Every structure is written in C-alpha cells, then in structure tokens.
C-alpha cells in the first residue's frame, strides 16, 4: 500500500517557476518548527515519518484522522508522542461494545448537596482525542462524535458546549479483525480528513525498535526517551493562518474537482467522492504546499494527497471486490485518466 504522504516532488503546471505574483511566502520559522516534529517523534516511534506528516497536515487543516494498521505498529504511541512534541493536551478513549455516548461527550451529574445538576466534561474536551479501536463500539456511541467532529462542540440537555481549539480526533482501527466490530457509516467516514495506513516496519526499522527496547525504552515514559515540545498551539494557530492564505489557481481547483467527479463515474465504485471530499482534498493540498515552502498549490500537491484524502470516501461494488479491485487501484486509474492542467 502506498505511503500516506510521499516525499516532496518537483511542481508542474500552473503556478510553477517563481510562482504567481503576490503570493504568500511561508514563514521559515513556523515551517521549521513543525518540520522538527519528525525528528522529535522519531525518538519514540521508528519509521513512520509519512504518518507524522499526515497528522501535521490534519492539524493545519483542523481535520480528523483515521489511522489503520494491525496491532503493534505504534498507532497509540504515535499520537501520544505527537501531542507531547506539540505540548497539546491529549486523552485516550478505549472504544468497547458497552461504551455509552455520555462516556465520550460528558453528562449531567446530580449533586445531592446543592440539589442541582452539573455538567461533567467527558474526554472529548481535549486537544487531541485518541479514539482507540473506534469500530468496536456500537453506532450510537460512534455517532456521539459526529457533532464534536463537525461543529467543534457537544450538546447535552440542549446546551451546546464549545470544545478546545485545536481539537482533532485521531481514531484507530484494525484492518484484519472484524469479529465484534461495527463498520463506520459513510457519514462518519466522510468527517475524517485523512485515512492514514501504518504498514509493518521495514527490517532495519524493526531491528532498531528491538534495540531500543533491549536498552530499556519504555513507551509509557516519553520524557525518559527525550521527547520534548518543539512547537505549541500558538505556532499551530499562526501556521493555520498562513495555510489559509495559500493561493489556488482556477485550473488547479478545477483539476481537484475533476478528480473527485471522476470517482462518481467509475464502474468499480458504488459511491464516489462527495463535494465535501473535494473541499478536503483542496485543504490538504494547501497544507502540503505550505509545508513544502510554497504559497501556491500545484497539481502535484493534489495528486500527493489524493490517496489519503479520498481512499475512505469511496465504496467498492461487491463484484469489483471479488475481482480484487481496491480503492487504491481505482484512485490510481482516476489520477491517470484525468487530464493534468499545464
């Protein structure tokens, strides 16, 4: 399976050369601060640079992430280390079949001393919420996250309560074990900006993991591993403001729309990408362009983010699945077929 976010590529198409006039020049200080996250996370997690970049893009876009990987590839450790390197508050919820919506969002609690109800905040009131094995809880509890993910608030007893900023949900799921799980509905999948896959490590990376454990590495003690904050919420906010000013030429915008529209016409798919998916692709491409040091988006930025942004927004036909077709192969076909603006 291809890496969620590839290495930088030479831009082509509209907005190359020296770029359009009057475009944003990304702040080197902000970019270097976020780029340093890779080295900091690598102190605890080995060989997952692409996933770290994807999570940074999600933070820049105020988007949510679905992490998919077999058990033991450091999904939970990755999120905990990233939050420590960004000095963000993080909470973890283990999703189980008996988890109730109030266990996530919070609930009203009766105080016998005052004879009044008071609101007790749930773990959703944090900056980085790790929803571990989200597909192990019933749809009712899964749905409790929808308002939080879309509106950045939760409503209890008719009263909306704002969540902290930034607020990002990072949900994990196991791609090989389906017994006792509940498939995420399309409406919820569409709320995730990116779906990142964490592959099994290469041999040299796995050897390095074993070496660290043999030398006493404790994944529960990140401070002992040397993980320190290299950025913070203030820098993240300023970076977001710059990303919002990254320019998109009409031809590139139309290209992103054409890629998404082409998925709706694919004979292998029963569900193509919605307009929300096209907006997500454009937002992710802008963040990637900014991280690459440009104040404008190129068609290559759109291509680079197409797989992680769109793979969970399409649904294969049953007959296509039987023939071995995958969402990745369909997206490859679409990207090869849609004309690239020059």
Automatic annotation (TrEMBL):
Single GO MF annotation: ATP binding
Domain spans labelled ChlI/MoxR AAA lid: 261-332
Protein name: ATPase AAA
UniProt lineage: Bacteria, Bacillati, Actinomycetota, Actinomycetes, Micrococcales
Alphabetized UniProt keyword annotations: ATP-binding, Nucleotide-binding
Feature: compositional bias, Pro residues: 1-11
InterPro entries: ATPase_AAA-3, CbbQ/NirQ/NorQ/GpvN, ChlI/MoxR_AAA_lid, P-loop_NTPase
Region (Disordered): 1-21
Record domain ATPase AAA-3: where: 64-194
Taxonomy, superkingdom: Bacteria
Similarity-based family: Belongs to the MoxR family.
